[in-house]
Design goal:
Shape: elongated
Distance between the termini: 52 Å
Number of domains: 2
Number of strands: 0
Helix content: over 70%
Length: 217
């Protein structure tokens, strides 16, 4: 697979930004190809095209789902993550208002990945990702995949005191403990939640409200 094949896909997305069907199908192809050909897609501007598509169709479920999936898979390296951040990916995945669980899974996974970069984490926190991730957990308590990726996103967002403070204030501690109770038999969810609680507890400034009041250690 070379840029000769990737370029027409991205060019089509750029030429038809207002067409939801084109954006959905284009993002779907990008997401699938990015697993093995991410660098070729990046070279022809796939990151920017996907983010533009996501921002142009905020209420379209399928566009949001596949664009978020493409964002996740286009984080191929640190420079690539920075380019996604610069293109507005943080705001796009944070601002997805569609209530469907499938969209929320991909958005949470994208937040987790983007937040691994310091600049990305700062942009996500400023865009309201802490509150958005908490809301997603509370809205989809019964969905194990949503809970898993949201808990992992909390881990990434809680890398410093500002992120921890915003997460705790948004109710992340309660959301995570609710998730652990709802998924007693799911080891992956419970481990991700336990890791998130430990990080929130350990990095929240002493003078701020922490998870101690919510979780019995």
């Amino acid at each position: 697979m070379s840029s000769r094949v990737c370029w027409p896909i991205v060019a089509c997305m750029r030429a038809h930004t207002s067409d939801a069907a084109v954006q959905r199908r284009g993002a779907q192809v990008v997401a699938k190809l990015a697993e093995n050909h991410g660098f070729s897609l990046v070279a022809v501007g796939a990151r920017e095209a996907v983010v533009d598509g996501m921002r142009s169709h905020t209420s379209h479920t399928a566009v949001q789902e596949w664009c978020a999936a493409a964002v996740l898979r286009l984080v191929v390296d640190v420079p690539g993550c920075k380019r996604l951040v610069a293109a507005g990916a943080c705001e796009a995945v944070t601002g997805a208002h569609v209530s469907e669980a499938a969209v929320q899974r991909w958005c949470a996974a994208a937040v987790m990945s983007l937040a691994k970069d310091v600049r990305g984490c700062t942009r996500l926190v400023a865009a309201g990702a802490c509150e958005a991730i908490t809301d997603r957990m509370l809205a989809h308590v019964s969905d194990a995949d949503v809970q898993l990726w949201c808990a992992k996103a909390v881990m990434s967002l809680a890398k410093d005191a500002p992120g921890c403070t915003r997460l705790v204030a948004a109710g992340a501690c309660e959301a995570i403990t609710d998730s652990m109770r709802a998924h007693v038999s799911d080891a992956d969810v419970r481990k991700a939640c336990a890791d998130a609680i430990a990080r929130l507890h350990g990095r929240t400034p002493p003078h701020k409200r922490s998870c101690r009041a919510v979780v019995r250690w």
